[in-house]
From TrEMBL:
Name of one Pfam family that matches: NAD_binding_10
Protein name: NAD(P)-binding domain-containing protein
A biological-process GO annotation: ubiquinone biosynthetic process
Gene Ontology cellular component annotations, sorted alphabetically: mitochondrion
GO molecular function: protein-containing complex binding
Domain NAD(P)-binding positions: 63-207
Organism encoding this protein: Musa acuminata subsp. malaccensis
PANTHER family with a match to the protein in the record: MIOREX COMPLEX COMPONENT 2, NADH-UBIQUINONE OXIDOREDUCTASE 39 KDA SUBUNIT-RELATED
């Protein structure tokens, strides 16, 4: 029942539809004509509102100098947000004019003393922190570091927190155990601490132009054609073992757009958004 109420709360248009067609009563609709109890209103996805943010809205991007993080920073600036980034190395190596508008902060999420004031006055956080290595390193970087950030954000009263997680890849999950266990532990913490303002994006392979030092690597040459083919192969995702490997890749600009929207739009529904959800939301105006 609470899920239905929450969906209605997050969809003003469905609430007004509910009110105009009958009375809203504990998640069921009572028709005014016959007092008949109808089935709960089914809302597939809330309609989100795109309004310019007030100038006081401050976004903190964790890992804003990485591949996904730098696209998130750029998108957030385009949306008129004030943006800061925290990472171990601080400033991005990108030499484009938008990068000068980001406040680049240095600190490790695994060393809380190195970033204790960064959440002050922050309205929303997007975490793009994650990585690969030994199992214990992957658990720390994907799990512990994000759990530290989620707890600190909740304590400081941050309203919304978006976490870039990862899609399940079936058998691959066993090979990268620390990575997936870390991701799922951070997701669980987010859903507990940010019941109404926590959004988890679960992309598969993310493609786009990745900056490595002064070089730009166009990963889109592989990702884009695969995305076109695989987004129409959704039923095949349910196949045992191979299904998860057919998760369509997604463009980094689509991930950034949905992440910023989820951080900025108070009616964006909380919870998990899979790759198909990311593709759908990214197409919305
Ligand atoms: N790329 C993909 O295809 C893909 C697919 C699915 C999911 N994802 C997820 O998306 C997220 C972003 O991926 P990406 O490809 O953009 O990775 P990336 O380029 O390696 O970026 C990771 C970021 O995390 C920062 N970071 C690492 N450890 C940190 C720490 N202890 N404290 C603070 N910052 C730290 C890094 O900066 P410093 O090194 O300067 O600290 C960097 O900015 C990750 O969670 C990843 O698992 C990526």
């Amino acid at each position: 029942m609470s899920a239905i109420v929450s969906r209605l709360i997050h969809s003003p248009s469905s609430v007004s539809r509910a009110l105009s067609s009958g009375l809203l009563n504990y998640g069921r609709l009572l028709s005014t004509e016959s007092n008949r109890v109808d089935e709960p209103l089914k809302v597939e996805e809330a309609e989100t509102v795109k309004a310019p943010p007030p100038p006081s809205e401050k976004l903190l991007v964790l890992g804003g100098n990485g591949f996904v993080g730098s696209h998130v920073c750029k998108e957030a600036l385009d949306q008129g947000l004030s943006v800061s980034s925290l990472s171990r190395s601080g400033r991005s190596s990108i030499r484009e004019s938008w990068a000068d508008k980001v406040e680049w902060l240095q600190g490790s999420l695994l060393v809380p003393e190195s970033w204790k004031d960064v959440m002050n006055d922050v309205t929303a956080v997007i975490s793009c922190v994650g990585g690969f290595g030994s199992n214990s390193y992957m658990y720390k970087i994907n799990g512990t570091s994000n759990i530290n950030a989620i707890r600190a954000a909740a304590e400081k009263g941050v309203k919304r927190f978006v976490y870039i997680s990862a899609a399940d890849f079936g058998l691959v999950n066993y090979l990268l155990q620390g990575y997936y266990e870390g991701k799922r532990a951070a997701e669980a913490e987010l859903l507990t601490k940010f019941t109404y303002g926590g959004v988890i994006l679960r992309p598969g392979f993310i493609y786009g132009t990745r900056q490595v030092g002064s070089m730009k690597i166009p990963l889109g040459l592989i990702g884009s054609p695969l995305e076109m083919v695989l987004q129409h192969a959704k039923p095949l995702n349910r196949l045992p073992l191979v299904g998860p490997l057919l998760t369509p890749p997604v463009n980094v600009t689509a991930v950034a757009k949905v992440a910023v929207r989820a951080a900025n739009d108070p009616v964006f529904p909380p919870g998990i958004v899979d790759v198909h959800g990311i593709l759908r939301y990214s197409e919305r105006k």
